[in-house]
Design a protein that fits this description.
Layout (H helix, E strand, L loop, with lengths): L6 H14 L4 E6 L6 H8 L6 E4 L5 H16 L10 H11 L5 E6 L4 H4 L2 H13 L5 E7 L2 H9 L11 E4 L5 H11 L5 H11 L3 H9 L5 H8 L6 H13 L3 H12 L5 H8 L4 H9 L4 E4 L12 E4 L2 H11 L2 H5 L3 H31 L4 E6 L6 E8 L4 E7 L8 H11 L10 E7 L5
């Protein structure tokens, strides 16, 4: 699959490289696994040699030998032997960068926790002593969100706030997914587009896997994802066990409950039989996997709160693959595909609401986006999109099929809702429906 999007990120990385010619730059690039962080940096700097250090889980002396070869090849110099440790290598490069500007890209940076945790304090000391006279363009990248956050945003850590920028790479936006479908499957249906969005969430690697498997329809995507050699089946566990550590069973149970529609804390606790306040906080603040949502206009202290998994792939993985893992364990792939096809309309209907939220955000036409529901759960509005400067608001009901949208009922709900949202007072309001034809 060809390289898509990332125009703004590439422009930013180009600017950072230019700035480094005068003053040292330290950039942190993070984002969930498979999002395309490494590809982005290498693409941005494909026009010039860069030092690429991959921090594998191996002995420090073996890493330093790999790094020595990279330095000698890319910078056309001889080190006269392998540095004894990474601190010695980094000190040499910081000194060299006072004479010439170059880019050092350290990938899977968080793995130094396993290789040698003292690397972080060593780097802090070397950086602090040398960066004012250096011209290095230092970029570090990591996939384990909790670890990267800890390294650079925990005041107790030596590299706290040493970076100039913290770039968070996000999934492809709806317009990019449409471009990809247009390029590879020009006859695609909106249901096919919705499936690509629902199953991958715009995560670059997952999109690439489906494109390379020529899976462009709902059915072919399901067949590709649920197969004996599919990487999708073990993907959720492979990524999240490392994030969660020994408590992963509890976290998995919480995420499975949310994915199955149990979005209130009381519902989740009833299902798993334990108090989960601390787990929910860590899932949101430390791991960035769930979001706590309140109705638009409600006070932050409201108890009318729900939790959602904001990563589409994890929503899908926990809703189907984790929940029905026993089916996959015995190799009943056809049965699993049947389950997904049976429940696809309901699952993708919720994803369609998220799609239109993302599409509205991408448009740049609004300053307020949100949902609304009452305490009893009897009335719900799928999307409110408003512009504070133009004092306009659009209230939407979202369904897969137009025939299931009831504008009269939506109007009644809006009349109940609007007096409860002070920020929309005096706005010109339009009541509308959105379905798959509007994608």
């Amino acid at each position: 699959m060809k390289f898509y999007d990332r125009t703004e990120e590439i422009a930013t990385l180009h600017k950072i490289r230019e700035n480094a010619k005068e003053n040292a730059q330290f950039t942190v690039v993070t984002g969930r696994r498979r999002i395309g962080k490494t590809s982005l940096v290498l693409k941005a700097y494909e026009d010039t040699p860069i030092l690429y250090f991959f921090v594998g889980r191996k002995a420090e002396n073996l890493l330093c030998e790999e790094f020595r070869q990279e330095v000698e090849t890319k910078l056309d110099i001889k080190l006269g032997g392998t540095p004894a440790n990474f601190a010695e290598m980094f000190d040499f490069l910081m000194s060299l960068s006072k004479e010439r500007s170059f880019t050092l890209f350290i990938d899977e940076f968080q793995n130094f926790f396993r290789v040698n945790p003292s690397v972080f304090s060593d780097m802090q000391k070397i950086w602090d002593l040398n960066h004012t006279s250096s011209k290095i363009n230092l970029i570090v990248c990591g996939s384990v969100y909790s670890m990267m956050t800890k390294i650079f945003r925990d005041k107790k850590e030596p590299l706290y706030n040493r970076q100039n920028r913290f770039m968070h790479i996000r999934a492809f936006k709806p317009s990019v997914l449409k471009e990809i479908m247009h390029d590879y499957a020009p006859g695609y249906s909106n249901d096919d587009l919705l499936a690509l969005y629902s199953f991958t969430g715009g995560v670059a690697k997952y999109v690439q896997l489906l494109v390379e498997d020529h899976a462009f329809t709902v059915d072919s995507m399901i067949d590709s994802i649920i197969s004996s050699d599919s990487v999708f089946i073990n993907e959720g566990r492979a990524i999240l066990v490392e994030e969660f550590g020994k408590d992963y069973d509890t976290y998995f149970s919480i995420l499975s409950a949310i994915a199955s529609g149990n979005t209130r804390r009381s519902e989740i606790e009833s299902l798993i039989g334990k108090e989960i306040g601390g787990y929910l906080t860590r899932l949101e603040d430390d791991y960035g996997i769930i979001r706590k949502e309140i109705p638009l206009g409600a006070k932050t202290s409201t108890k009318n709160t729900v939790y959602t998994i904001h990563d589409n792939f994890f929503s899908f993985w926990f809703r189907f693959i984790f929940k029905y893992g026993h089916i996959l364990e015995i190799g009943a792939y056809n049965q699993m595909r049947t389950v997904i096809r049976r429940d696809y309309a309901t699952f993708s209907g919720k994803m369609l609401e998220r799609y239109f939220y993302d599409k509205s955000a991408e448009s740049g036409n609004y300053t307020i986006l949100g949902r609304w529901w009452d305490r009893k759960g009897e009335n719900e509005i799928d999307l409110i999109a408003a512009n504070e400067f133009e004092k306009t608001a659009e209230i939407y009901e979202i369904k897969r099929q137009r025939k299931n949208i009831n504008i009269a009922t939506l109007d009644e709900k809006a009349r109940t809702m609007l007096p409860q949202i002070p920020q929309l007072k005096g706005f010109a309001v339009e009541i509308r429906g959105l379905d798959m034809e509007n994608m």
